[in-house]
Amino acid sequence: PPVMAEAGADGIQRLSITLDSYSFIPSSIIVQAGKPVEFTLKNVAVLAPHSFKLDTLDSGLDLYRKVDAGKTATLSFTPTRPGVYEFYCDQKLALFPSHRKKGMVGKLEVR
Fold this sequence. Notes:
Elements: E1 3-4, E2 6-7, E3 13-20, E4 23-25, E5 28-31, E6 37-43, E7 50-54, E8 63-67, E9 72-77, E10 83-88, E11 105-110
Parallel strand pairs: 1-5, 3-6, 5-11
Antiparallel strand pairs: 2-3, 3-4, 6-9, 7-8, 10-11
C-alpha cells in the first residue's frame, strides 16, 4: 500500500526508505506538491551499493543519491508537478542485469 510522507512542525515531509536486495520499502510513496521533502535512505545490504534515482522529464525533478552498503544518506527536494513518477536503483555489477531490471523500482505520487 502507498505510504504518505508526513509533514513535521517545520513543514518538511519526511519518510525513511529502506534499500535492500532489489527492493525499496516502501515502494509506493505519496507527497504533497509545493512542500519540501526529505527522504532518509538506509541501505541494509551487506555488500551492494544501491541508489535512488528519479529522472522523469515531466516530473520536473532530477534526483540521485547513491548509498553504499550499510550506510544512510538523505535526499531533499521540493516537488512541483502533480503526477505519478517511477524511481529506481541504477546500480549494476559487471555481467549482471541492473538492479532496475531486477525489479528495484518504485512509484512517487505527487498530489
